[in-house]
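Recall that a protein's primary structure is simply its ordered list of amino acids. Everything else, from secondary elements to tertiary packing, is in principle encoded there. The following example makes that idea concrete.
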Amino acid sequence: MSEILVVEIWRGAEDGHFQSFDVPRLENQTVLDVVTYVQRKLDPGLSYRFSCRVGMCGSCAMTVNGTPRWTCRTHVSRVAEDGQLQIAPLRNLPVIKDLTVDMRNFFDKLAKAGGAFQSTKARTDNFAQIPPADPRRKQADAGIECIGCAVCYAACDVVTWKPTYLGPAALNRAWTLVNDARDGMGDKRLSLVAGDDGCIACHSQQGCQEHCPKNLSPTAAIAGLKRSVAVAALKGKL
């Protein structure tokens, strides 16, 4: 007889509840495999998101035993406690249904932080040549691999306490652009992240850094923004 994994999955919207399922335990099984089994074999009404299944898109992020994770890259053997697994939607985002959350506020904050690249060149201009050793390029490179999965946002206690806070992903994106020599937004972007809902609201608890599946450090990016905002303020540019 095969080993059974007891899985609790959040059902419904904000006022929902956990529902228990018995799922066969398999070798090299991921949490996303478990959710997919429940949806295909036990309850076709289960709502969740996934796409690439190989850790490229970030759409399968959920809360697993209280921790935000990419479920496609999280093996059951690493997180199941005594054959128990609890799967919930990401924290700090409205629940649409079951494991599916509304990401609009998360992406709106990226825009509020000036997350769109503002080119200083035309299509007909030559490509900008920035040496890999350039200090600003190194700062930008350190955070450029963010794919917007919202794991850091779900892990951030400041977002929980202050829902208007821009959050680590949006601020990390702003920092990469502040250091992009090709971007022309300049001090205007710093003004967008300098307010009460911006970088100064960060408590530097490093939950975002601890949980980032890409091993990025939004905490370091936010610290960089704090320094840049302070310098710009002293120079009267904000």
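The first helix runs from residue 31 to 42. The longest strand covers residues 4-11.
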